[in-house]
Amino acid sequence: MRRYLLSRVAGGIGTLAGGSVVAFFVFHLLPGNPAEIIAGTHASAAQVAAIQREFALNQSLVAEFVGWWEHVLQGNLGVSVVSNVPVSHLLAQTLPVTLTLIGASTVVALAFTLVLSLGGLRKGSVLDRIALGWSVVGLSIPTFWLGILAILLFAIHWGWLPAGGYISPYSSPLAGLKSLALPAITFGIYMSAIFTQFLRRSFLDVMREDFVRTARARGLREWQVVARHASKPAMIPFVTVVGIAVSTSLGFAMVVETVFAYPGFGSLFVQAITTRDYYVVQAGIMVIVAAVVVANILVDVAYLFLDPRIRYGREG
Amino acid sequence: MTDSGRPILSVQDLVVYRGKGVHQGNSTVGKDALRVVEGVSFEAAAGETLGIVGESGCGKTTLVHAVLRLIPYQSGQVIFEDVDLGGVSERKLRSLRRDLQVVFQDPYSSLHPRKLIGKILSEPLELHTDLSAKARERAVISLLNDVGLGASFAQRFPRECSGGQRQRVAIARALALRPKLVILDEPVSALDVSIRAQIIELLAQLQRDRGLTYLFISHDLALMRSFCQRLAVMYLGRVVEYGPSDVILHRPSHPYTRSLLASMPIPDPEVERRRNRIEVRGEIPSIRTPPSGCTFHPRCNYAVDRCQVSEPMLEVSDAGVLSRCFFSSEVAAQPPLDDARSSDAPPEPVVEEHLFERS
Amino acid sequence: MSGAETSVRPASTALPEPAPDPVVEVADLEVDFAVRGAIGHAVRGVSFQIRSGEAVGLVGESGSGKTVTALSLLRLLPDRTTRVRARSLRVAGVDVLGASAASLARLRGGAAGVVFQDPLRALTPTRRVGSQIVEVIERHSGRSRTQARLEAVELLSRVGIPDARNRARDYPHQFSGGQRQRILLATAVASHPRLLIADEPTTALDVTTQSQILDLLLDLQQDLKMAVLLISHDLGVIARVCDRVLVMYGGRLVETGSTSDVFRAPGHPYTAGLLRSIPRLDRPGAVTSAIPGEAVDGFTQVVGCAFVPRCSLAAPVCTECPELEDVTPGHQAACWRSELVT
């Protein structure tokens, strides 16, 4: 079990290292040198040279990479070329906003999913049909369109909720939750469509297993059969899907945050790409890679709780 | 070791590892590797059926894969028609495989589901012969007839066939290139009793007509008694008894064979009531942690201290077969189990006669 | 606590009034199932009884309806795709088709335990084996959890699991195949049932392990005075365990009788053919196929006897469906020409 976790963490560190190489060399793969990219198309040669000096871009690639890592390990992610604010400050401002959004969306998604997936317990039941329809419709509606529709209805037509912007729910709970509601529901609906599809399938499969039939043959009530015998095995494949969805949701946050004018990490990253904000993009890639790594490790930890075959190893 | 004819297949001291870090021709393997086949030797004479019997974990499947060189083996020799398969090139191996075919247990997964049976049967002919399309078609129809299926089956998909019909197709495919040796890996275990008998009858017929040699892998001792001339009994990767099946299944010389025989239920309530049972203790140990000395000692009724420390060699027993047991002669001297032909008179000989004359 | 013998006995209050013999009473059982719009007939007019304490074998090839028949006894077939009808279907005194969900649940695992073929798949992989026994005891004998735990440990050691106290906390994958089947047997008999249904309980096991499990099964049967319905395709296993045998073909019962009668002098050509098709350790000689062709499935329209296409005794009369009739007292076969069967 210890070995299992250590190997997962080691793998995560490896992924991070690989990600850092990608993050670092992305700009070097573009035509021209990074200084030219940072300076923009209309810069003079003197300006480019100045930038080269300022950012220490005139060394060898390897030396530069090592130097960058040294800074990263000291917590220095560089300074935004556009706003002149340290990148670490920018992340400290935007990441909590986005994580709050993702957290709220995941809660919304899981709530929808758990209710709908119970349909998977009885194939062909009304709830099962709704779940199937939900997952198909939810996946085929583009998130940005759903977001705009939500703004039109709830913010503009009825005026119940703000159309965009962010108020911290930690300092002013009510206003904060109101500002969170539309983006979280929009995002949550999309996630729940994925989740429902998988959890429903997973339940359908597990309910056909021999051990479920055996549990029924022991005279357990149907809810006992589900709660004691079917739920954990059904969760095992589902946890993987949740892990992948949550870890890739940083990318999806870009769409949702743009629609709702949300000052989160997604907006920051989109802006950094369009303005070629070198250090911000580098740090952003690292954050996304780190999110995937952390989510994967959390999924592996969840396996430990769900699956005794991993917890105790195989015998016999 | 042989008694009849020239061996067509001869396996000598074969050792096969499985697991991480196992590569062809590599005798140094990782510490996680398992010795699944441990110095196995046997010979199959042309035209005979050699049976390999054993329970799960005995290594019989690994052995088959190694003989077919689907997986590498670490030491020993597999000699087919005087050619050492270990030393030949891939190219030569491919042409040798024409003479060396296999039928697997599961007729559901061994046939490509989206190919017509005609296509499945003509493919080996396309790859290995220069027959014209017309000649291949004729060959396919004659193959289908040989295995008791009509020409119309060429236009069917495997899913449109029953389990028994699929196994007939698998047999036809194995025979397409007129092989000399066919490995039958539990060919009837997945089939119903009535279909099982049909397939065994077919296999026996094909063997007579084509002079085939069979290597027959099974766990069904009763089937082996009637189908195999010679038998190798395997336990945890080793051959523990080897010789004529008639002798082994009548007067076993190894305690494991004896307990296997005693454990096989006989479809006759009278016989079952009268049989003396041998209790076999425990279950088959994991190949990961084989017992010391003789690997059967923890479950053996004959075991003494010596069996825990030293492993017996395969030696000729009083019954005239090879047995890997220090007490093979004592075991062979035991009265035979439940045998109507036995000279040691069973308790109710008259009833016995009556019973076995019927049917 | 005074030993395993008494501890597996449930409190009498948890069971319905001791039901009259027979334990199982089936009359004209019909089971239809729907697959992709088509209706198939898995069981057609099966009637039989099982008396208290007797071991009955149900034998047949795949698709003969033997497992469906056994599962119908506790209504364990999926409701949505199957329809079960019968003139009478009573298990341990409970009218299974008319029973409420609650009394059906009391019957399942209470008066009737079930063991399935593959012990790894029949035990829930994410639950400790001890708790899988405890839940049966709690559910059906109303014991406290502490008491149920003690009984579960005793039951585990009764079925031959060494170091039961510690091993009760292990998960199914930590046991060998034979041990898992022992554990499954323990869960099935935890409430001291009057009937144990065992569906191919040893098919997935090795020969030596099979032998041990059959011994345990017989042992438990005598100990707990249970009736056993053993479903198997292996006539050897039936011969070893059962007092009486039911032979099914094409969804119908074609022969019933004491095991010794049926095996010595079968009255149906199908049974006779099966017995001739099996190679026997004690009878050397080539395997001969005694039944040509293949079995019909539940979707085939059958007129008269379903065995006709494979039967060497078939005659014009066989286009009418034969009923079970006495060959000798207590031994019945559904064949017009059973006197010709050899």
Q: Figure out the total of helices of chain C.
A: 12
Q: What coarse outline of chain C follows from CA principal-axis ratios?
A: globular
pLDDT < 50 runs, ≥5 residues of chain C = 1-17
Helix content of chain B: 25-40%
> In one word, what is the shape of chain B?
globular
Largest sheet of chain B: 8 strands, mixed
Strand content of chain B: 15-25%
Rg result of chain B: 22 Å
What is the count of helical runs of chain B?
Answer: 13
Secondary-structure element series of chain B: EEEHEEHEHHHEHEHEEHHHHEEHH
Spatial sequence of strands, sheet with the most strands of chain C: 7-8-9-3-10-11-13-12
End-to-end distance of chain C, in Å? Answer: 56 Å
- How far apart the termini of chain B lie comes to 37 Å
Biggest interface goes to: B-C, 52 and 52 residues
Helix content of chain C: 25-40%
Question: C-alpha Rg of chain C, in Å?
Answer: 21 Å
Pick out the low-confidence regions of chain B: 339-359
Strand content of chain C: 15-25%
Number of strands of chain B: 12
Q: Please tell me the overall pLDDT of chain C.
A: 90
| Sheet having the most strands of chain C | 8 strands, mixed
Task: Using brief descriptors, characterize the structure shown.
heterotrimer; A: 316 residues; mainly alpha; MetI-like fold; 2 domains; 77% helix; 0% strand; globular; C: 342 residues; alpha/beta; 12 helices
